Amino acid sequence: MRALRFQGVNWQKSANRDAHHTEKFSSQELIVRRGQPFEIAIAWNRNITPEEHLDFVVSTGPSSSESAKTKATFPISTGSTGGGWKALLKSKEGNVLTVIISSPVSAPIGWYTLNIQVTSPSSSEGMYTANLGVFVLLFNPWMQGDDVFMSNEAERREFVEEDSGAIFVGSANRINMVGWNFGQYEEDILKISLTVLDKSLNFRRDAATDVARRNDPKYITRVLSAMINGNDDYGVLLGNWSGNYSGGRDPRNWNGSVEILKTWETSGFRPVQFGQCWVFAGVLNTVMRCLGIPARVVTNFNSAHDTDRNLTVDVYYDPMGNPLQKGSDSVWNFHVWNEAWFMRNDLGPIFNGWQVLDATPQERSQGVYQCGPASVNAIREGDVDLNFDMPFIFAEVNADRITWIYNSSNGSQKQNGVDTHSIGQFISTKAVGSYSRMDVTEKYKYPEGSSEERQVQQRAMKKLKPSASITPTSAESEEGEGSSPSISGRFKVNGVLEVGQEVNLILLLKNQSQDRKTVAVHMTAWTIVYNGTLVHEVWKDSAIISLESEEEVQHPVKISYGQYEKYLKADNMIRTTAICKLADEDEVVVERDLVLDNPALILEVLDQAQVQKPLNVQMIFSNPLNEPVKDCVLMVEGSGLLRGNLKIDVPSLRPKEQSKVRFEILPTRSGTKQLLADFSCNKFPAIKAMLSIDVAE
């Protein structure tokens, strides 16, 4: 009888990918999810005899072993057995075997090689091994028993399958939304996402152990939080908050993750320049969704960066109203991180669910720039002693903001006020199934000023500094710290805030006493980057203002376009400050961060969208300035709408001129797809637009 030889395998990709919710991936390999059976048909050169014994061998990673559960040998059986890898004979037709293979729900994810071994007592050649090929195993949010299981179908669709989304940016008093193309199904993105794991320090130090631990979403997400930034390793993105982005791309110009991940791979795994927090979060979201971990992007407004674990951030001004970059603490107008959904078997069931992960390199953790996973439930309860990086994340949403006046002439500094409410506001994420903002602040903390909030703060402080005496910085405890100021102040916006227009504000000062007051006011305005980095002073003024008993005075502030034009960054942010000094009283600090609106960028489709049918789209942009704009570039992308990125050089525009640019895209998938555009020129570094397009089959 002829020796038994393997002739071919039918991976039944279409049926398997549909069953495993992986049909949208562009990759040609079989992509399946753990814990769920898949079928393959194996053809031989002749019928198999009863004495011939077949065993499958699956393995993943280098130095795979059965003890590490990165390798398994299992026979074809006719009945169900155990919880490990197994193969069930479905049918035998001639020389073709159809087999159902099942993986354990706790198997490591990644590339697998599948071999089959044939042994026959009568054969002189002993064992014959055939290589069937490779497949990819992913996490399975559809499978109860998988640590990433998510029971709600609408949430699964949003947090695993959706390949575009929105990220909230701006400031607490001006929340804006930008679109982001996650693009996890695009060509090569799955391969690159798995390569991210293989480039990690953990893999390079001990590949066998690293691969064995890839069964655990806790482990994988922590590794990814380190790998998306390029600070310690062959990470994906280099951060830059200087305001100078020469040598790379202004972080505001990215529309999505696909180009970043592909650039990282094609450059030989050198970090891509440049990223800021929402870019790190967008890329991390792509990789987590790609691997099957439910994930979303979350924005925290007025986010504290507390470097010394004391749950306070110190903010400094000089007596003339200039903000100072003194000390290592800071408050970011907004900060963007991720949440991933999985069980915390290391902590207990009450800590299951959403976990914070942050790929933005801010502080080292265990020697590496990585952050999380930290249970959102634990953050809410002040359990800062639990893994991972809880004190830092707790402070981001809960720290007290202490204002100081620093006098450089004599080196003195004076505490001006404690704000217990402003940090951690409007914590936001995209709503399920729509592009509206969902506020998740109450998931992170109890209502500001409530007794529960104060108890949590005390609990956290006690765990961080067990020997310290705890005095909560609540309204009640501040009353004894000196009399409240006799005046109050705030900046009020007067009119519109638009790039290219004069900024008009009113400083409202109110005398809260029965006595006449004379106030010396020193005011400044600085352009800033969203994380508080100062760029340039653009305006300053001083005034002496007299206030009668309980009088309110309106003092106008005007900042011309000519004053701020050269120094405004793509964030479009200006920080205004007034230091109000009264005789024999503490200064009153009034501040407001302004976010200026860009002119509108309009996208419109000109035909009915249909799969594989060219679609014309038009961009409309009007130059609002009294001067020309040049070096105009339009960047367009959208998963399922066009391959890669479309870059269009747009002719210069004269003052007040309107530009219309038509371009063609080719939709490849049906359903509602998002087209994202970024328009940049010498006067407007990053104008965004997003358009939903319904694509018919």
Automatic annotation (TrEMBL):
Basic and acidic residues composition-biased segments: 446-456
A GO BP annotation: keratinocyte differentiation
Cofactor detail note: Binds 1 Ca(2+) ion per subunit.
GO CC, one annotated term: cytoplasm
Alphabetical keyword list: Acyltransferase, Calcium, Metal-binding, Transferase
InterPro entries: Ig-like_fold (IPR013783), Ig_E-set (IPR014756), Papain-like_cys_pep_sf (IPR038765), Transglutaminase (IPR050779), Transglutaminase-like (IPR002931), Transglutaminase-like_sf (IPR036985), Transglutaminase_animal (IPR023608), Transglutaminase_AS (IPR013808)
Catalytic reaction annotation: L-glutaminyl-[protein] + L-lysyl-[protein] = [protein]-L-lysyl-N(6)-5-L-glutamyl-[protein] + NH4(+)
Span of domain Transglutaminase-like: 269-361
PROSITE patterns: TRANSGLUTAMINASES (PS00547)
The enzyme's E.C. designation: 2.3.2.13
Catalytic residues (positions): C277, H335, D358
Residues that hold Ca(2+) according to the record: N398, D400, E448, E453
Region: Disordered, residue numbers: 446-487
Broad enzyme group: transferase
Domain of life: Eukaryota
Pfam family, one: Transglut_N
Molecular function per GO: calcium ion binding; protein-glutamine gamma-glutamyltransferase activity; structural molecule activity
Cofactor(s) needed by this chain: Ca(2+)
Subunit structure: Consists of two polypeptide chains, which are synthesized as a precursor form of a single polypeptide.
Family the entry assigns: Belongs to the transglutaminase superfamily. Transglutaminase family.
Name assigned to this protein: Protein-glutamine gamma-glutamyltransferase E
Organism ancestry: Eukaryota, Metazoa, Chordata, Craniata, Vertebrata
Gene of this entry: TGM3
